[in-house]
Amino acid sequence: MNPWLLGTIALVGLGLPVAVWIGARGSATDRLVGLELGAVDATLALLAFSQAVEQPSYLIVPAVAVVLAFAGTLVYTRLLAHPS
Amino acid sequence: MSLVHAVAVTCFGAGVAVVVLTGLGALRVRRVEDRLHYLTPATSLGAPLVGLGLVIANGWGLTSAQIALICVLMVVTGPALTSAVLRVASQRAGTVSPEAPE
Fold first, then answer.
1. For chain A, how are helix, strand and coil distributed in percent, rounded to 5?
2. pLDDT digit string (tens) for B31-72?
3. What is the C-alpha to C-alpha distance for residues B42 and B19, in angstroms, rounded to an integer?
4. Residue B62 to residues A57, B67, B68: CA-CA distances in angstroms?
């Protein structure tokens, strides 16, 4: 058990459930905040996991995730901008 | 444990703590605006600290460059996303006109 793996466990075990909880309750914009928080938690957890298992090739996953999370959240803001 | 490793682990641990605590803080408040206030340090402070710790641990190289790129992307896109979400929340609350410039 190295410190990077401990950080991964903290992010996945504490950070992500909180983000899922926020993202599953409340209004649409509340849930959007949960989505944004979850994207940050997941990306950092993937970074830490890559370091924990000493596999730098795994870094492509958070690199793609951060770009897709940005674009995906912007799409949701566009869809939610005009409530019907 | 060398001094460099200790500094790296400290930065990494501080970043993880910031991200987890801001999430718990966001859970405690109810308004969207307050939750976004809690979310901001996760991208502006937590992500750079995590990245700094990993870069120090890896030393100079392509791995560190990729980690730095990911963290820079998070720092740059975080405030833009926060602004966009707040704008949507304001539009839906009626405090900002839907025709307001983007």
1. 85, 0, 15
2. 888 999 999 999 999 999 999 999 999 988 999 999 999 999
3. 5
4. 11, 9, 10
Tokens of B77: 């896109």
Among partner residues B9, B47, B69, which is closest to A44 by beta-carbon distance?
A: B47
Average pLDDT across each block of 10 residues of chain A; the chain has 84 residues. List them in order: 93 94 90 93 95 93 95 91 66
Residue length, chain A?
84
Residues 49-68 of A with CB under 8 A from B: 51, 56, 59, 62-63, 66-67
Residue B51 sits in which domain range? Answer: 3-93
Query: Do A18 and B27 count as a contact with CB atoms less than 8 A apart?
Result: yes
| Residue A48 contacts B, CB cutoff 8 Å | yes
Domain annotation covers residue B100: no
User: Number of structural domains, chain B?
Assistant: 1
How much is the pTM?
0.92
Cα distance between residue A4 and residue A61, in whole Å: 17
Q: Which distant-in-sequence residues (6+ apart) come within 8 Å of B55 by Cβ?
A: B64, B67, B68
* Pick from A35, A11, A52, A51: nearest CA to B18: A11
